[in-house]
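Audit log entry. Action: structure prediction of a protein-small molecule complex. Ligand: S-adenosylmethionine. The ligand was supplied as SMILES and no pocket hint was given, so placement is left entirely to the predictor. Protonation state taken as written. Sequence taken verbatim from the request; no trimming, no tag removal. Recorded inputs:
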Amino acid sequence: MRARSPRDLSRPRYKASATADVNAVERAGEMHHPPSQRLVTDPFARHLVQSPVFRLLAASGPVARFSLRTFDRFYGGNHAHVTLRTHAHSEQVRLALADGIDQVVVLGAGYDSTAFRMDLGAATLFDVDTAPTQRAKQAAIARAGLKPTGAVVYVDCDFESQRPSTRLPEHGFDPSRRSLVVWLGVMYYLTEPAATQTLSELAALMAPGSRLLADYIDAAVIDGTTPHPGARRSFRSVKRRGEALRFGLTPETAERLLREHGFAVTDSLRLGDLAARYGPPDGVWCKLDDWFGTLVAERAAQA
Ligand SMILES: C[S@@+](CC[C@H](N)C(=O)[O-])C[C@H]1O[C@@H](n2cnc3c(N)ncnc32)[C@H](O)[C@@H]1O
């Protein structure tokens, strides 16, 4: 197990994730739009929101819509990406299950609601996050009396100091069988060594034919050269919450990184592509500032 550097240790691991809570309230707020304008339909998100202030914001239609528009004015691009990527997530889960994959891993799951909003059938969902976030999520699930549609296994794992390749098999994950790994909204919060180490771990865990859905943030957001004011504000705001954005890529370096770790990229989407593919009939109401990418990849056969 790798030791955490002093810089990593400054991150407050004893706290549940604040950024996961922001993502949950973004999904919850969308339920106050009519279906033809809704960027995502997640009726369970509101039960998983943690902060009492966020719960209030998500409770009333006018307040939720005003809050989302204010958020979007400051952090343009974030809301569209966070909500629309959920469609890619759902689509990959559906495709994997239809193809006989029966292990779905959501890495850095935060307050993701897949286990409630999708029919898992005979598949097992491995929900992986740090221990404080998992505790907060499980308490919210118990409070709301939510019942998963299938088998869910909670795996606490800190990617900076623990190995998914140990933690997942300890909880019943079978590396010899194919899997789908969803890794959304996480890679950019890790240090580069932890992100690449996690990818190596995934390569070891995922049988050939397994699939990976991951997203990345532009390297220009990390080095401060991004032209998008919303991205610059996000960088500063996330840092204040103690979950700094640390690792960025470009479409080219992201594809190369996955290739170097044994994954063949089958789809590379920018925010405009997500909007064109998954946007609602009335169009996307918020900004589409382009500073995120989303990749679908397949674990190549081992040489
Ligand atoms: C922005 S949230 C995204 C949550 C969720 N994937 C979503 O889309 O709503 C980032 C998530 O990554 C998790 N995360 C960040 N650093 C981590 C680490 N070192 N080990 C495990 N999880 C981590 C956080 O706890 C949080 O749940």
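Audit: result stored. The first strand starts at residue 103 and ends at 107. The chain has one domain: 16-299.
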